[in-house]
Write a structure and sequence with these properties.
Helix content is about 20%, strand content about 40%. It has about 160 residues and is of the alpha+beta class. The longest helix is centred in the N-terminal third of the chain and has 23 residues.
Length: about 160
């Protein structure tokens, strides 16, 4: 008789443990707590830091590229920025750079090249060698001094979470 009660008690405890463990972290709750990776390819509008720059805008394209020689896929960030002021209007700067970073982890910077349009060229460039997961990334267009390699403040910016 005692053995039967012990057996039933153990069975009841086992079933209770299975029930509690199976509902401890339902997949829906776990998915809400984790940061979602962005869908690639996606594009991101870069907005001016200074709201007085009404016409200044940019776009970043983020997608996987397969480079030669064949290796694992890398992430590419390409930036096009338009209607930016002359870099020298901000001080000792002569160019713009693309800049992307994951706070306190890693950053990437790459040259943006002006188009030959007179007055207000468009600026464009790309970086193909990103191997990090694209979570919590900030993408910017920043001022640059090509002679001193000094990176200046951000002119356009947005976070990867707005990438669509």
């Amino acid at each position: 008789m005692k053995t039967r009660y012990v057996f039933l008690l153990l069975l009841l405890l086992s079933l209770s443990a299975i029930f509690v463990v199976s509902f401890e972290n339902p997949p829906e709750v776990q998915a809400l707590n984790e940061e979602k990776a962005i869908p690639e390819p996606c594009s991101l509008i870069l907005e001016p830091v200074d709201k007085k720059l009404k016409n200044a805008k940019g776009v970043a394209l983020v997608y996987k590229v397969q480079l030669n020689p064949p290796s694992f896929a890398r992430t590419n960030i390409s930036i096009l920025a338009v209607h930016l002021p002359e870099p020298s209007s901000y001080g000792d700067y002569d160019s713009y750079e693309g800049f992307a970073y994951i706070p306190e982890e890693i950053s990437w910077r790459f040259k943006l090249y002006p188009t030959p349009e007179v007055g207000s060229p468009s600026w464009a460039g790309r970086f193909d060698l990103i191997t990090a997961e694209m979570k919590n990334v900030e993408v910017q267009v920043r001022l640059s001094n090509t002679k001193t390699d000094k990176l200046g403040p951000s002119v356009l910016t947005n976070t990867i979470s707005y990438c669509k």
